[in-house]
Design goal:
By secondary structure, this protein is of the alpha/beta class. It has helices at residues 15-27, 41-47, 71-78, 80-93, 105-108, 111-114, 130-146, 155-160, 226-237, 270-274, 286-294, 308-318, 331-343, 345-355, 363-375; strands spanning 3-7, 31-36, 51-53, 97-101, 118-122, 164-167, 184-186, 212-216, 242-246, 262-265, 277-282, 299-301, 322-324. The protein has 2 domains: 3-190 and 362-375, Glycogen Phosphorylase B (Rossmann fold, 3-Layer(aba) Sandwich); 212-358, Glycogen Phosphorylase B (Rossmann fold, 3-Layer(aba) Sandwich). Helices cover 38% and strands 15% of the residues. It is globular.
Length: 387
């Protein structure tokens, strides 16, 4: 059986699908070890996987431009100290395959030196927003250059150096591939819950006919937004709905003033809530948006910092399954959008139509098959069709 080393960026939407794929690989008899920033370690340990902390994650942070919510992230994702440590970790672990997060240039730039099969894991659309991908990698590199650490290659060079790019999105939802990207494999969404997200009793009976609304934003600390939570709670507070808000542990429940019709939780499994929900209010993370669509739930999207969130917001509005609002939308604007969606059954109808594309193969299992092929000297028995 193969040994996989996953050089990880534990952004809000990145770690859960990574853990889902690791689970599928482990169930096939392989071992998966994660290496990442300090914030990642307890989350991966809770999932039961071997974990390595990048001790140099923030060693050069003082050199990066200060005052940005991305300062620490940019240091971890691009610094020379992290690149050097990535080489050392790979050498010490001697894996059969190295998996690197698509957002991790400091590790991607070292991939050609590993002399091992290398895959990139991407947890959102690729071709629908390839220019945005290029821009965010260039922006991160710009912060590295301001730190006096020189420049890194552009995205096209970093990504094309990998043997395979595994994308946990449905191919039918992405745009048509650009020429020259034959290494890209769409496997479908991986909608894994972390251990802290468990089914949680709500204060309303299961047969209560009142429409249920879920509010959920990023679990990445860089995107912590208590004001956005409060605006959404205030907007929904005067409507005839029940509201469940999950803060992901990055906003304390006592930071928020919940209206009488709302329940605010740190964590809760979203599937049991979405099974009964009429609306989701979210930041446009790929995983949350796909989970809502899988249940046929329309959404209001208020994008956060991540580069893919405006694209996903625009896509949900383009498909007629939701409304895209600015991240700083006021209470009245959010309330009006909620009233429009809840009173217009066409949003729900179109969301249910989109849900049909998310049935079938388990994205985690198909992704595991893709990674197995990199480690195997002979063809691996198929798990199912790659979408």
């Amino acid at each position: 059986m193969a040994r996989y080393l996953w050089l990880n960026w534990s952004g809000g939407g990145n770690l859960p699908p990574s853990l889902g794929i690791a689970r599928a690989l482990t169930e096939r008899g392989h071992t998966v070890t994660f290496a990442g920033r300090p914030e990642m370690v307890p989350r991966v340990e809770a999932a039961g996987f071997p974990t390595i902390e990048f001790k140099q994650a923030y060693a050069q942070v003082d050199r990066y431009p200060q005052g940005s919510p991305m300062t620490k992230a940019a240091c971890y994702l691009t610094s020379a100290a992290v690149s050097h440590e990535a080489r050392a970790i790979v050498a010490a672990e001697a894996p059969d395959v190295v998996i690197i997060d698509a957002m991790f240039p400091a590790a991607l730039v070292e991939a050609p030196t590993f002399s091992l099969p290398t895959a990139i894991a991407c947890h959102t659309f690729v071709f629908r927003q390839l220019d945005r991908w290029r821009q965010i990698i260039a922006r991160l590199d710009g912060m590295r250059q301001q730190a006096g650490l020189g420049s890194l290659p552009p995205l096209d060079v970093l990504w094309r150096a990998a043997d395979r790019i595994v994308v946990t999105a449905a191919a039918s939802f992405d745009a048509a591939p650009e020429a020259g990207w034959d290494s890209v494999r769409h496997v479908g969404p991986v909608l894994e819950d972390e251990k802290v997200a468990v089914p949680t009793p709500l204060p309303w009976t299961a047969d209560d006919p009142t429409p249920l609304v879920l509010i959920s934003f990023s679990t990445g600390f860089e995107q912590r937004a208590p004001d956005k939570f409060q605006r959404c709670l205030d907007a929904l507070g005067g409507l005839p709905v029940h509201v469940v808000a999950t803060t992901g542990g990055i906003v304390a429940t006592d930071e928020l003033k919940a209206p009488a019709n709302a329940c605010v939780l740190n964590y809760a499994a979203h599937d049991p809530i979405l099974q009964h929900a009429a609306l989701a209010v979210t930041h446009g993370g790929h995983g949350t948006a796909m989970r809502a669509l899988r249940h046929g739930v329309p959404m209001i999207v208020l994008p956060g910092l991540a580069h893919d969130q405006p694209c996903i917001a625009e896509t949900m509005q383009e498909w007629g399954v939701g409304r895209a609002l600015p991240g700083d939308a006021d209470v009245a604007t959010i309330r009006t959008a909620a009233q429009e969606i809840l009173s217009n059954p066409s949003y729900r109808k179109r969301a249910l139509q989109r849900a049909t594309a998310l049935r079938g193969d388990d994205g985690a299992v198909v992704a595991a098959h893709e990674f197995e092929e990199l480690a195997a000297p002979a063809p691996v028995p198929a798990y199912g069709s790659v979408r």
